Amino acid sequence: MQQDKKGKYMKTVKHKAMRKEYRRKDLGKGTRGKYYKEYQKGTNLVLLSPDVAAAFPDEASVNDALRTLMKIGRQSVGTTKRSTKSRLASSSW
User: Fold this and answer.
1) Which of 67, 64, 44, 62 is closest to 52 using CA atoms?
2) Which helix (H) or strand (E) holds 81?
3) Does some domain include residue 28?
4) What is the pLDDT of residue 61?
């Protein structure tokens, strides 16, 4: 096992332990510490699917869209038992 900077042990993956559908050459070289500074700042990193990423030109637009979605979610949580019962009573089941 290998130790990280804090002295904790990390598991290492051997090429034989990788799934058959993965090929090391397809994964690329990789960059050690690529997101280290962002991680230290407490930033959450999220990998967007290509089709989702194509809809947003930059990180600010992603954040704006997510904030709008959160606002809509907070507004829609306000249903009560009374509003649910009256809605069900008015349906023609």
Assistant:
1) 62
2) helix 81-90
3) no
4) 95
Task: Please give the DSSP secondary-structure letter assigned to residue 14.
Answer: -
Does the residue 27 lie in any domain? Answer: no
Q: What is the pLDDT of residue 19?
A: 74
Alpha-carbon span 20 to 7, nearest angstrom: 32
Residues 6+ apart with CB under 8 A from 24: 15, 18
Q: Count the domains in the chain.
A: 1
On whether residue 58 sits in a domain, the answer given is: yes
- Domain membership of residue 73 as a residue range: 52-77
Residues 22-44 have pLDDT tens digits of 777 777 788 888 888 878 887 77
* Residues of the chain predicted below pLDDT 70: 1-5, 7-18, 78-93
The DSSP-derived string for 37-58 is HHHHTTPPP-PPPHHHHTT-SS
